[in-house]
Amino acid sequence: MTQHSTAYGRALEPWIDGDLERGRSGFGRMVAATANPLASHAALEMMRDGGSALDAAIAAQMVLTAVEPNASGIGGGAMILVAEGEAVAAYDGLSAAPGLVTDRLAKDFDGRIVPADRAAFGGRTVGVPGVLRALELAHASHGALPWARLFEPAIALCEAGYPLSPYLLRAMQEGPGITVETMARALFMEGGRMRPAGSLVRNPALTQTLRRIAEDGADAFYLGEIARDICRVVGGDLFPGTITEDDLAAYRAVPRQPVRYRHGALTVLGGPLPTFGALAVGQLLGVAARHGVSSIGTSLTAEEIHILVEACRLAFADRAAYAGDPDHHAIDEQALLDPAYLDARARLLDPARRSGAMRAGADGSMTSHLSIADGRGQVVSMTTTINQNFGARLSVGGFYLNNVMTNFADHPMEGGRLSVNAMAAHARPRTSIAPCLVLDDHGVLAAIGAGGGGRIIGYVANALLRLASGMRDPQEIVSAPHALNSGGMAEIEPELAHHAPALLAMGHWVMPRRHDGGTQAVIRQDEGWAAGGDPRRDGVGMGSR
Q: 490 with 446, same domain?
């Protein structure tokens, strides 16, 4: 790791094209857009050393485990799309339920009802992490550099120190419960107060964890001492979980087929179930196009916002009914994207007025995203998460564990039948993450995805609609204001707040607010690629020749 990587403010190496102020895209033959400049830098470093885009994604994920521990890390899960030539592969490394579970988090093993706020964090909310198994599986087919080399940037940062990022501090302020957690107090606080942004952070525990995984592969995480430590921490919590060493040893990443649909002249390939985000984006785009909104610019009209919000509400209604683990339930993804079905759904949308309750048809949170192109034909779109900010608020080995169990259905029965998202042994709960690859007649045009919980669907849809309008500057796309549905609210960013009266007149509940975002995009240019990182967080797009 080069010397500059230990601080934001030092000049970038001559071979990097990047703007830490996120005022413009980074350009180059190879590009990376991640949620932190140190992760983007590590990705470029791997590719300049002959590594593939997948190699770069692994290096970036390890750095994000250190510098953005609130949003993702080796204690969580991921959905990875890899395009290589005309072939696109999907790798499901989402976190899974342990073998011994109740039918819902709010019900204890003795039948007592658990308070909802107690069931949001703690040992019982931890699923078996999957990101390392998925990265290992993808590396076997798409990697170029040795596995151990990919861990060097993160190990160097953990040893030498890295700056405490502004976004991490904000995440701690917005979730004050984390300030009593052991690792947070040791790394990010001093004298009972949060350290200022830019403070040097060292993480010796994560250094040792990453060294073991670098040397012995993912088995070092799923077998042996790290696995025992995970079980000890999860089982020893006041809200104890049931993960066993057998659960960790038995976890496997699953190769899947990406979901696919057309939008105008573009083809979108997205993460498949149990990630419902890309499927929901396809439904949103299809319904919106049937009401004349097939593309948008940097700004929007009140009428466009209305259509987008209502189309998103329709997609969320289907998510509740049909999104679950395809290995546990028979779910026909393509039926939810069938033109006749989308025609019928679009007819439920009033172009001039907010509709009432929306039901399924047919019969919060944080996350991180990486978009990378290596300039040699491989492109990666990877969304990675520990679910909510700081996951279960339990740390082990210098990283946080996920709280993905909160993503299962609140009740096992919905509408008189077993929910497709009911909690079950070894099942993977649904998630709104939406990693996407976009193809045109010349191959992969873009890799796009986002963090941000349920808002991911709106973020990605906004980005794809701007891409469909002909916009090709990824920084401009990811920086443009969002309009989306969240919990039935029409959420608009401050630049669009002047539309609030018109939306209120249409019957919407309107919430003007700045979004956390987390959209990262890379887009093919006439020569090379461009990368844009979301300025709402610490995202930066970088490129290199």
A: yes
Computed over its alpha carbons, how large is the radius of gyration of the chain? 22
Q: Is the backbone of residue 120 left (phi > 0), alpha (psi -120 to 50) or beta?
A: alpha
Bond from prior residue into 166 cis (ω within 30 degrees of 0): no
Q: Record the pTM.
A: 0.95
Q: Please give the residue range of the domain that contains residue 202.
A: 3-254+368-404
Residues 394 and 451 in one domain: no
Measured in degrees and rounded to the nearest 5, phi and psi for residue 73 equal 150, 180
Query: Could you give the 3-state DSSP secondary structure of residue 33?
Result: strand
| Residue carrying the six token digits 């073998």 | 99
Same domain? For 356 and 374 the reply is no
> Same domain, yes or no, for 297 and 372?
no
Note if 367 is an active site residue: yes
SS3 523: strand
CA atoms of 25 and 323, how far apart (whole Å): 35
Q: Does one domain contain both 279 and 291?
A: yes
Q: What is the pLDDT of residue 333?
A: 84
Q: Which of 65, 244, 275, 367 is catalytic?
A: 367
Residues 327 and 226 in one domain: no
Q: What is the pLDDT of residues 57-67, one digit of tens each?
A: 999 999 999 99
Domain count, the chain: 2
* Whether the Cβ atoms of residue 318 and residue 260 lie closer than 8 Å to each other: no
Is 80 within 8 Å of 410 (Cβ atoms)? no
Contact 532, 541 (CB under 8 A): yes
Total length of the chain: 545
